[in-house]
Amino acid sequence: MLEAIKNVKVHLLVLALVVGAEFIGILKFDVGPGKLVLLPMLYAVFLGTFLGPKFLKVVNDKDMDNASALVSLTLMLLMARYGTLVGPKFFEILKAGPALILQEFGNIGTLLIGIPIAMFLGLKREAVGAAHSIAREPNVALIGDIYGLDSAEGRGVMGVYICGTVFGTIFFGLAASMLSILNWFHPYALAMASGVGSASMMTATVGSLSAIYPEMADKIQAFGVASNTLSGLDGVYMSMIIALPMSNKLYKILYRIKFGTPQEGK
Amino acid sequence: MNKVTESAIVLLIVGAITLIGNWIGYGFGIMEALPGMAVLVGICILGVLANKYIYNLPTVLYVITFGMIITMPGVPGHEMFAGWVAKVNFLALTTPILAYAGVGIGKDLPALKKTGWRIVVVSLFVMTGTYVASAGIAHVVLKFLGEI
Q: How far is B32 from chain A (nearest CA, A)?
């Protein structure tokens, strides 16, 4: 890490990327019931990619290694801020009731569907990173802590994180309206499920639902916000204690079925 | 240099870059956001120390938990801390992370190319799986409680 700290070039490039990205700012486009949201972080990662040896050749292999080595630590500042978003609402969440708490276990549905699909598509360890959770910030930080973000697991979680950031609000806005047409679930249940730990995804869902059921809008919004805050509170614990171990176990079983041998390496 | 000192230096560098982005993108002056950033850096250093000296749990668990505790109602100074960190925009913190990731991504490009479209498909199923399973459970529990 010491070498990475002393690589002033990397820090200056990052500073330039940040200044450029923040200067462009947030761009929003209405798409159907959702919004396509482009955030400065996306410009930063996109422009950063172009500095590499394949394109502009501004950075060399050593610079790239140095930059990657620092990512999981830079995530910690975001996580500290994340904690401070949850803290003020701590007691409201505790009061929110059993339905809210139990629906959090729905996150396990993520890995039960996601891991087999990812492996069917030919992913290996990427599958565990990509499908153990919905890959919001705390999940990315956790995978970074345990495997490192330049590992296969890290690439998986970052990929889903970036897709979720770009398409998440459109997807959730559409999913909420489509599920309300199917009429399988009560609008309150749809509102509670929207809290996956991303304020923008939750807002898109609650927005569509409120437009469809204006007479229930107040309660829909309250459930959405409470559930989202609860995910913020328990998301990282849930991932570490339940979802990640389950994903690894499922991966091991599926690996043996698919390839007929126990998984190599760890 | 030991790991804790190194981590502290990295956090200070990233903190400084974030303060500049926070100023350009979200209009919080650097001096205005400085106390909040100092608190965040402090929490992270405590997290690194806890990971090293208390118990080897992931640093991110300590950091989130510390951030939560200092802003929890009833904890001395919680309003002051919450007010300070509110001056550091959440999104401003995400930009430097993805900038470092972007600079480093070049060496993963061949691997990313191989997995790219698959990850997009997986992420759609991940989002669907989470949403439908959570809605199903919420529906059953609400019905059971007689709320709907």
A: 16
